[in-house]
Amino acid sequence: MIFNIDFETLPREALAAIQLKRLKATLEKVYATVPFYKNKFDEAGFSPSGLKTLADLERVPFTTKQDLRDNYPYGMFAVPMANVVRIHASSGTTGSPTVVGYTARDIETWAELMARALSAGGAGRRDIIHNAYGYGLFTGGLGVHYGAEKLGASVIPVSGGNTKRQIVIMKDFGPTILTATPSYTLHLAEVAKEMGVSFKDLSFKFGIFGAEPWSENMRGELEEALNIKAVDIYGLSEVMGPGVAIECYEAQNGLHIFEDHFIPEIIDPVTGKALPYGETGELVFTSITKEAFPVIRYRTRDITSLSTEPCICGRTHVRMKRVSGRSDDMLIIRGVNVFPSQIESVLMKTEEVEPHYQLVVDRVDNLDTLTVKVEVSESLFSDEIKILQGLEAKLSHDIKEYLGVSAKVKLVEPKSIARSEGKAVRVIDNRKI
Ligand code: DLL
């Protein structure tokens, strides 16, 4: 079902007219209220009143994660604190976290967009949503929660962790939709198995998974293990949280971005030049309805492409391809660029290994080395060492063949790689230590 049929199916011309009006108002507002934006615009010789068409957005300077850090904690807020009703923060791996704020209207907008997203992902009023995204400073838990209530579904605010208890709740409460990170979902499936519970006997129909990169092959793995349809949801705290974009369950082919609230662009990450639809590059967002924490041409570092091809679901909003990774997660191993999700894709093609892996990067004699640790299935682990060695060689060969990078594959014992309760840690880069 389309939650907001008027806005989600707008003809693209009408959508552009709304975007232009909202964009102008946003630019004027940030120029008047956020010194950072005023200085940036002035330096670039850009005046909000000079914006005549959507294409003029290209003349507006970018905002980066570093800019947000430099203005930590509240320097980018466009309203007085008295009007802020919620604060979230994204942890980030280095430096200070990014702090984001919401007015009461922002919370309403977010709930509406998350209701749209859940609906596009297959949820309705009669569904019971087992929400295993973490509640707290992370936007996942509360973002999904408010959207589920807005949709009129029943939400179980179970959060991440306490995994055994989650399985009991799944058995007893009969949830029909699971919302969690793909990596935590794998862990849930594993613990359920240990407890003698089969997902096939539970009532789940759909899983709405996101917050971290995952491959198409991982989708197959999850759909099979859980006996559900797995839908991809995307978002980031700086732009709002979950619900910036979602796949529709009908097509499961690209994520619709809610363009009446966010203007996406794809740029060349090196030159900063805007790229046409269809080309792959860095995703950039401008929020056009947010009050407390508007972002202007925010560089996400996420790599994807956009398509305006009509979708069978009837939504007219642009679709972004599944995010292959963040430019800062991209490993450059002896000159070859690889994303962890590409390695994941290759590993998932081999039956004998489990979807639990970690990449270890090191520098030996000034040369970068990549070791791929992957868990072998229980049944094989007890087998002869020769078989294991053969499998390691095969996987190394596959990685070289598909990605052009040399990697040492090390099969490790089942359950030896740390499980995540939120976002998985896929890369250990010893070069940075
Ligand atoms: O992860 C918001 C979210 C919560 C999205 C729940 C979906 C579900 P942050 O913690 O700020 O916010 O992290 C945002 O996570 O820039 C991407 O790099 C990555 N990411 C989020 N969703 C996906 C996805 C939330 N579906 C960062 N595929 C983003 C790939 C994703 N990467």
Short account of what is shown:
With 433 residues, the protein is of the alpha/beta class. 32% of the residues lie in helices and 25% in strands.
Can you walk me through this structure?
The protein folds into 2 domains: 1-327, 3-Layer(aba) Sandwich (Rossmann fold), CATH 3.40.50; 331-432, 2-Layer Sandwich (GMP Synthetase, Chain A, domain 3), CATH 3.30.300.30. Strand 8 and strand 9 (255-257) form a beta hairpin. The radius of gyration is 22 Å and the shape is globular. The chain is built from 12 helices and 22 strands. It has 433 residues and is α/β, with parallel strands linked by helices. The strands form 5 sheets. It has a 9-stranded mixed beta sheet with strand order 4-3-5-6-7-8-9-15-14. The site of 5'-O-[hydroxy(phenylacetyl)phosphoryl]adenosine (DLL) has 21 residues, from helix 6, strand 7, strand 8 and strand 13.
3D shape: globular
Bin the strand percentage: 15-25%
Extract low-pLDDT stretches: none
The structure class reads alpha/beta
Q: Termini, distance in Å?
A: 49 Å
How do the strands of the widest beta sheet line up side by side? 4-3-5-6-7-8-9-15-14
| Biggest sheet record | 9 strands, mixed
Please estimate the helix content: 25-40%
Q: Quaternary arrangement of the chains shown? A: single chain
Q: In total, how many domains does the architecture comprise?
A: 2
Query: By CATH's scheme, which homologous superfamily of the largest domain applies?
Result: ANL, N-terminal domain
**Assigned CATH architecture of the largest domain:** 3-Layer(aba) Sandwich
